[in-house]
Amino acid sequence: MYGWRARIGLLVPSSNTTMEPELWKMAPEGVSLHAARMRLTEVIEAGLREMERQAGAAAETLVDAGVDVILYGCTSGSLIGGRGYDVRVAEDLEDRSGVRSITTSTAVLEALNELGIRRLSVATPYTDEVNEKERLFLEENGFEVVRMEGLGLVNNLEIGMQEPRSAYRLARSVYAPGIDAVFISCTNFRTVEVIDRLEEDLGVPVVTSNQASLWFVLRELGVRSRYGKYGELMREHL
Fold first, then answer.
1. Quick one: pLDDT band at residue 187, thresholds 50, 70, 90?
2. Which domains does the chain have, with CATH numbers?
3. How far is residue 8's CA from residue 87's CA, in Å, rounded to a whole number?
4. According to the 3-state scheme, what is the secondary structure of the chain?
5. Is the full-model pTM beyond 0.70?
6. 30 — alpha (psi -120 to 50), left (phi > 0) or beta?
7. Under 8 Å between Cβ of 163 and 190
């Protein structure tokens, strides 16, 4: 039986082509993923808010798969409303599904706190408009964003087409002396292949949306697996 240790229900934007493969790549033995999709083609505020309105119905379909937790797998979509928006999204999903629910933004906050991060640089594929929403969310939650840079992409399918080297180069470009970590945002931005190389080259922890999402879900499920890669967060804090 797939998911004999745990079953993760995953809610992803319809145009996200990265999160499922990355989570499957990182998932420990006995943990399975079961996805439902919410319509989104452009990463803009209106589209992200409309996608969230579809989340409850999508979550109800995951209940049929007997999932143990539901993960709202979109970073910008779970922070676009500012501080506390991530919690409200999760609470709404729990009300609709009756299943413990978590958002990627909550997982990122938990990961940064676990690592003792306060000053960070942020790399994203987003436009300046979405980046400013993310900066505000992080700062309202007690973090100092020292440097932030995005690729300016709106089309989510295009974001998913970026090669890992794109995330690597962007993360290097936002590095600043004295920061505690680099955060690479977006569940549709390929990162898992470059996390360890970035930590070696930059000398600070690297947190990514998909890495933090899986880390926090496994913590919540009580699944303790040993990792030798995917960053300090997975190697030393699971």
1. very high
2. 6-104+211-229 (3.40.50.12500), 107-208 (3.40.50.1860)
3. 18
4. CCCCCEEEEEEEECCCCCHHHHHHHHCCCCEEEEEEEECCCECCHHHHHHHHHCHHHHHHHHHCCCCCEEEECCCHHHCCCCCCHHHHHHHHHHHHHCCCEEEHHHHHHHHHHHCCCCEEEEEECCCHHHHHHHHHHHHHCCCEEEEEEECCCCEHHHHHCCCHHHHHHHHHHHCCCCCCEEEECCCCCCCCCCHHHHHHHHCCCEEEHHHHHHHHHHHHHCCCCCCCCCHHHHHHCC
5. yes
6. left
7. yes
In the block, residue with structure tokens 């990182």: 26
Question: Each residue of 63-102: pLDDT tens digit?
Answer: 999 999 999 999 999 999 999 999 999 999 999 999 999 9
